Amino acid sequence: MLFVATMSAAAQSGVENGAVMVDSIEVASPAATTDALSGGDMEPVMPNGAISSVASTSRYVPATLAYPINPLATTLPPLGFTPGVANIASWGSGGVYADGGRAHLQGLMGIETGSVNFMQQMGPVTVTLFGSTTKYGYFRGLSTTYGFGGALTYRFSDNLSMTVFGSYNSAAGITQPAMMGYVSTPVFGGYLDWRFHPHWGVKAGAQSYRSIAYGRWETQPMVIPYYRTSSGAEIGIDVGGIIYQVIRSAASGNGSSNWGNPGNPTIDPRPTGVFIRPRD
């Protein structure tokens, strides 16, 4: 293949001033290029502005580009999506979208989740609903759970809002203590969101969840300080569980309190000696 440049009379006159203007560039086959050169009336413009005759030229020299060009750079549209999120339908005040994610816990298990979400804003009220599926894969085991839930937010002002939420998830059947903290459980609660700075805020409230370890409902506070980026994303951490455990440990003292976690059981020393099973 050969890149053939077509120059107009005005472009050729501009060579004298050190500028080269090319009207068009097309790709020609070697045979077509040889026929074009056989006319003897084409004189290529050299980089230094000199004119060199090609009347005696019998072979062409392939064109070389000064910089590599990615052909996809001018044909691909902008990537207008968020990784892990796919828009299904949208309108002025809401939409329906799907999202998914995957987490690999080395030596423990893998988690894959996907959900379909609905969001609608009606003045100061925002309603969110979702349905989800989560798959847990571990050594010689595979569990799948299904869940649904939603949230209702009322915005008092640009800096203060209130949210109530709730969700339900089917039982996963996982009993390993190391995995229980990663399994979704039924939960409901609410919190106040106070943004006291354009980039800083705090969410405070309470939530109740069903403990897989103890098989009962437990309630703990929610305290989430967060940082809001210029794009609207929030980066925060819930320290309510830490505060709850500190208060509970201080209230229980040495673990003699009846409420909360009773603590580790007392195990008697192992017996010593050799035991021989009696004959039947």
Describe this structure in words.
With 280 residues, the chain is mainly beta. The chain is 11% helix and 41% strand. A ten-stranded antiparallel sheet has the order 3-4-5-6-7-8-9-10-11-12. Strand 11 (217-228) and strand 12 form a beta hairpin. The longest helix has 13 residues, at 240-252. The chain is globular. It starts with a strand and ends in a 28-residue tail after the last helix. The model is unreliable at 1-7, 9-46, 49-61, 69-81 and 255-260 (pLDDT under 50).
What's the tally of helices?
A: 4
**Gap between N and C termini:** 95 Å
Largest sheet data: 10 strands, antiparallel
Please report the total strand number as a whole number: 12
Beta-strand proportion: 35-45%
Helical amount: 10-25%
Mean pLDDT comes to 74
Helical/strand content category? mainly beta
Give the topology string: H per helix, E per strand: EHEHEEEEEEHEEEEH
Spatial shape? globular
- CA gyration radius, whole angstroms: 35 Å
Poorly predicted tracts of residues: 1-7, 9-46, 49-61, 69-81, 255-260
Q: Order the strands across the largest sheet as they lie in space.
A: 3-4-5-6-7-8-9-10-11-12
SSE topology:
Layout: E1 2-6, H1 9-14, E2 24-28, H2 30-37, E3 85-91, E4 94-105, E5 109-122, E6 125-138, E7 141-155, E8 160-169, H3 177-180, E9 187-194, E10 200-210, E11 217-228, E12 234-236, H4 240-252
Antiparallel strand pairs: 1-2, 3-4, 4-5, 5-6, 6-7, 7-8, 8-9, 9-10, 10-11, 11-12
Features:
mainly beta; 280 residues; ten-stranded antiparallel β-sheet; two-stranded antiparallel sheet
